[in-house]
């Protein structure tokens, strides 16, 4: 993956300028990602990297998966050193079920479904990295009006029980999200029926989607059954103390989990959870960086150089 650029290979002033500027361009899916990278996780890495969104690089002003892939290709045409980082859920949009539900991190990392210049995170979405036991426990302690009083204080086990319940409800949505993608329907909002549990939650989904003509097709039921089997097979891969969060981070929509936690425990939006990072020591902040992304960036920093 080493980028070795020589002026001999360049044929325009724009290309030479890209090389001389030196910084490696990292295209991210959206502005929330850009904020997390530049402000919270990797601020000092901006000495070597430009964390960018692709909207300014394409005529449609498009962010997201396609925007990242196109922006990287366009910049590399002009000999800029450019890479992209995509969330795992890009594979949902591609309907790449085998890789989406691959539980082996090494097999997943080696697949490179969008080419060698696009890094796909094992995390389902960027917010999945916030699903840390320490993060969430402190989020509860600092921001939940329900649990702030001393007589109502929660220990970490109680917090994780709440998280586990919301993960179960997010897991229930996975086959529905896949079916919506295949049918060309907009998936149900992340906060849909977030105040409902168990059968009332299931009934709300059924009432919303079950009446659609497309939903009655036999192939939809087959797809949802297949996705459900894949998800449970992936779940079996994870064992140990962090089973719930390790599974959730890879295969569940984190926004569904965080919105349900926030709504039902009065925690405020995800940025209050993000702000928890500022409460930690420097060493702790470093430990909360997504390790796989830090390794990816460190590798690029070491390998990308100019032969001028």
What does this molecule look like?
- It is a single chain.
- The two termini are 18 Å apart.
- The model has no long low-confidence stretch (mean pLDDT 86).
- Helix content is 54%, strand content 6%.
- It is of the alpha/beta class and 308 residues long.
- The chain has helices at residues 13-21, 31-41, 64-77, 90-93, 97-100, 105-111, 133-143, 156-183, 198-209, 218-235, 243-251, 254-265, 270-275, 282-288, 291-303; strands spanning 4-5, 24-27, 49-52, 82-86, 118-120, 305-306.
- The protein contains 15 helices and six strands.
- Strands 3-2-4-5 form a four-stranded parallel beta sheet, sandwiched between helices. It has a two-stranded parallel sheet with strand order 1-6.
- Helix 8 (156-183) runs antiparallel to helix 10 (218-235), helix 8 packs parallel to helix 11 and helix 8 (156-183) crosses helix 12.
- Helix 2 links the parallel strand 2 and strand 3 (49-52).
- The longest helix is centred in the middle third of the chain and has 28 residues, at 156-183.
- The radius of gyration is 21 Å and the shape is globular.
Order of strands, main sheet, comes to: 3-2-4-5
- For the termini, the CA-CA separation is 18 Å
Strand content: 5-15%
**Which runs of at least 5 residues are low in confidence (pLDDT < 50)?**
none
Main sheet characteristics:
4 strands, parallel
Mean pLDDT: 86
Percent helix: 40-55%
The best one-word shape is globular
**What order do the helices and strands follow?**
EHEHEHEHHHEHHHHHHHHHE
Question: What are its keywords?
Answer:
single chain, alpha/beta, two-stranded parallel ribbon, 15 helices, 54% helix
